[in-house]
């Protein structure tokens, strides 16, 4: 148990430093959109720490480090290009935090946003640790199924991101809801497929000793995406912009799980 704690604490230390550096970048730019990029890459840091420190089979370590790294660079790169490099104005969530934080805005962004997310990733990275610690070099059917689900989820999230980006590029769509492609069946297909990514990692971890503990990650992600930082906050700001047409979208379209529209 002591060895386990050392691994997680070392990962947390590196992530805390990384989060501090990107917090300083956001402070200098007076725009904290970088926090979503920081959250994504901090998970990549955790998986690489486990890759080097855990004593599991090489096959299992290379599997999870490859999956998480590919996910992290795909999502983190997309967020960095669309929200940071593009000079996009600060996300409404963080703009609202500025108002509530007042004169302590930078200090609270450091503790309440950047460092809190880094600490949360200690828990979310549990499946990574379980997989990287699995001593069995042979692959279980659950691991094959997890990899297949990961590929489907990653493709779904990438398609949803692409469809939304293309929709926003068209000036004729200004002030409209994106209801094309996957967005026709779910108001937040990107969140849904992101959650499936976490389900895939938990599924792979079930083939490891104590793998059931890894289920905590998709459970937490589901709660955050559907009850706290995901859908509720996102839709709060959308309703402020176009309440009349978005309420109809809410009435007819599933919030999370893709499904057919209501009549």
Describe this structure as you would to a colleague.
There is one protein chain. With 263 residues, the chain is an all-alpha fold. It has a domain at 139-263. The protein has 10 helices and no strands. Helix 1 (2-29) packs antiparallel against helix 2 (34-53) and helix 3 (58-85) packs parallel to helix 7. The chain is globular. The model has no long low-confidence stretch (mean pLDDT 96).
Principal-axes geometry comes out as: globular
Q: Gap between N and C termini, in Å?
A: 55 Å
Proportion of residues in β-strands: under 5%
Query: Looking at the chains present, what oligomeric state does this protein adopt?
Result: single chain
Element pattern in H and E: HHHHHHHHHH
Helix and strand composition category:
mainly alpha
Please mark out the parts with pLDDT under 50 across 5 or more consecutive residues, or reply none. Answer: none
Largest sheet: none
Q: Quick check: average pLDDT?
A: 96
Number of strands: 0
Q: Gyration radius, to the nearest Å?
A: 19 Å
Helix content: over 70%
Number of helices: 10
List the helices and strands and how they pair.
Blueprint lengths: L1 H28 L4 H20 L4 H28 L6 H10 L3 H20 L1 H7 L8 H29 L19 H17 L10 H12 L3 H22 L11
Helix pairs in contact: 1-2, 1-5, 2-3, 2-5, 3-7, 4-5, 6-8, 7-8, 8-9
């Amino acid at each position: 148990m002591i060895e386990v704690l050392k691994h997680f604490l070392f990962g947390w230390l590196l992530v805390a430093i990384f989060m501090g550096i990107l917090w300083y970048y956001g402070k200098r730019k007076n725009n904290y959109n970088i926090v979503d990029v920081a959250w994504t890459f901090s998970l990549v840091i955790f998986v690489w720490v486990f890759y080097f420190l855990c004593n599991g089979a090489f096959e299992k370590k290379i599997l999870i480090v490859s999956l998480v790294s590919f996910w992290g660079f795909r999502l983190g790169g997309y967020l960095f290009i669309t929200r940071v490099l593009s000079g996009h104005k600060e996300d409404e969530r963080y703009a609202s935090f500025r108002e509530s934080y007042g004169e302590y805005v930078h200090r609270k962004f450091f503790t309440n946003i950047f460092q809190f997310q880094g600490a949360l990733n200690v828990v979310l990275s549990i499946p990574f640790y379980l997989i990287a610690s699995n001593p069995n070099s042979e692959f279980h059917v659950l691991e094959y199924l997890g990899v297949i689900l990961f590929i489907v989820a990653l493709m779904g999230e990438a398609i949803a991101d692409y469809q939304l980006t293309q929709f926003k590029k068209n000036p004729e769509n200004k002030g409209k809801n994106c209801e094309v492609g996957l967005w026709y069946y779910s108001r937040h297909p990107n969140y849904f497929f992101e959650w499936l990514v976490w389900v895939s990692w938990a599924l792979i971890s079930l083939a490891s000793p104590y793998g059931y503990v890894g289920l905590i990650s998709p459970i937490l992600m589901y709660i955050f995406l559907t009850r706290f930082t995901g859908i509720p906050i996102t839709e709060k700001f959308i309703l402020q912009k176009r309440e009349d047409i978005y309420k109809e979208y809410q009435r007819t379209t599933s919030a999370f799980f893709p499904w057919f529209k209501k009549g």
